[in-house]
């Protein structure tokens, strides 16, 4: 192939990436990652967007080939982002996957991940002051070749913060109060900021708003950027009244997802990750779940969760 460099026409005799791999082992994924593209402020589902989307695009690599043609992966991302319309952002990653499979003829699988920072206008709990709350939207697509065509699976997710209040410490303090001179005062416990990410396989009817509501209702209480003193008291008391471990948050999110999307097929996948930045420990706590909506429904039904 002929290419120009500093006025010289070069005839490249070797396509190094297409050469045989010296160690013939198939690789699951080879990606261009942390790809950044600037965008102007937009609005998505009523949420304000002022961010640089972060994209990852990957394909598998057969054992017969030394490397991928990375520029083709970048071009697939650039092509999709250049035509980005945020009202149709749900289709961006699937478009990237389709282009990846077109450009990388040696690959049988492709995936793309797009992350966006969004801001929601909320109100503080008591004074109703307007406050901007940040969360992250996640879009993922996976594709593989089948009979000359391809099959796509699409996912939508959100990642945000909330408060977890420890049920264990609250129970111990309750016992101390009962055996001491406590007079029915609100029972305290330690609490911390926590993160939850929930991603659901979509048929086109899963929205960020639905997922954000699930996330908010899974924590002990929400975090709020702007709090007056009475707002702060309300947030703290609300968290104490609904103490939850990271395990509780993950299970609640799974249950609410199954309840929110009753028409999604049983084989649709759900992934949940919760991380608590522990306030009285140097370590943190995490809880993770990877399952299907059908498995959640089965366990809820068998254990009779109302």
TrEMBL record:
GO terms for molecular function: GTP cyclohydrolase I activity. Gene3D superfamilies: Urate Oxidase. Keywords: Hydrolase. This is GTP cyclohydrolase I FolE2. The keyword Hydrolase applies. It comes from Caldiarchaeum subterraneum.
């Amino acid at each position: 192939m002929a290419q120009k460099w500093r006025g010289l026409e070069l005839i490249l005799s070797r396509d190094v990436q297409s050469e045989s791999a010296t160690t013939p082992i198939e690789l699951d994924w080879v990606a261009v990652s942390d790809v950044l593209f600037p965008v102007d402020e937009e609005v998505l589902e009523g949420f304000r967007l002022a961010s640089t989307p972060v994209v990852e695009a990957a394909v598998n690599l057969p054992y017969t080939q030394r490397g991928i043609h990375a520029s083709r992966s970048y071009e697939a991302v650039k092509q999709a982002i250049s035509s980005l319309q945020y009202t149709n952002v749900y289709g961006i990653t699937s478009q990237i996957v389709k282009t990846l499979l077109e450009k990388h003829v040696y690959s049988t699988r492709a995936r793309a991940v797009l992350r966006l920072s969004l801001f929601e206008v909320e109100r503080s709990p008591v004074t109703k002051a307007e406050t901007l709350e940040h969360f992250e939207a996640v879009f993922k697509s996976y594709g593989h070749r089948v009979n000359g065509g391809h099959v796509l699976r699409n996912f939508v997710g959100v990642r945000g913060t909330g408060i977890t209040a420890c049920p264990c410490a609250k129970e111990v303090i309750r016992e101390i109060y009962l055996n001491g001179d406590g007079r029915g005062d609100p029972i305290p416990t330690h609490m911390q900021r926590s993160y939850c990410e929930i991603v659901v396989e979509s048929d086109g009817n899963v929205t960020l708003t639905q997922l954000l509501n699930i996330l908010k209702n899974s924590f002990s209480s929400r975090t709020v950027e702007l709090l007056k003193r009475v707002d702060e008291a309300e947030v703290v008391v609300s968290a104490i009244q609904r103490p939850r471990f990271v395990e509780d948050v993950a299970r609640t999110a799974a249950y609410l997802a199954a309840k929110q999307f009753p028409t999604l097929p049983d084989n649709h996948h759900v992934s949940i990750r919760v991380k608590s930045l522990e306030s009285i420990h140097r370590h943190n706590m995490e809880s993770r779940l990877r399952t299907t909506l059908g498995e959640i429904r089965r366990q809820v039904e068998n254990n009779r969760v109302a």
